[in-house]
Amino acid sequence: MAPACVVTASRALEFLQLAHIRKIVSRLCAPCAKIARMEDSPPPKQDEYVETERDRRIANAVLVTFLVVLVGGGIWLANAMFDQRRIDDCVAQGRHNCGPSIDAPAR
User: Fold this and answer.
1) I need a labelling partner for 103 at 20 to 30 A (CA). Which of 30, 57, 64, 85 fits?
2) 35 with 69, same domain?
3) What is the DSSP letter of 51?
């Protein structure tokens, strides 16, 4: 049988190693522990606000307006790009007066 001091020293070493391992594991598992605490928390209270039909109509009108502006801007941008491409093709062929014609005012 081993002397008592050797047994005590080996147990102390095991404890220190386990404490070090626990410390490392606790650092690595901190996000997991936070998630577990969040899951254990009671659900948040429901808001008193109830959406009405008027609120939905306003939101829908705002969204439709935004989409119309977005589509209109996209069409305008596409047309501007087509016109620029047409002018670039004209210039690349060596032609003159490729831009839109400017009418002089009548005298």
Assistant:
1) 85
2) no
3) -
Give the HSE-up count for residue 45: Cα atoms under 13 Å, Cβ half-sphere. 3
CA 106 to chain centroid, in Å, comes to: 58
CA-to-CA distance for 96 and 104, rounded, in angstroms? 18
How many angstroms separate the CA atoms of 16 and 8, rounded?
A: 12
Distance CA 68, CA 62 (A): 10
pTM over 0.85: no
Query: Does the residue 104 lie in any domain?
Result: no
Task: Encode pLDDT of 39-91 as tens digits.
Answer: 556 666 666 778 889 999 999 999 999 999 999 999 999 999 999 999 999 98
Angle at alpha carbon of residue 11, lines to 10 and 14, rounded to 5°: 85
Tokens 């070493």 map to which residue? 13
Same domain, 3 and 34: yes
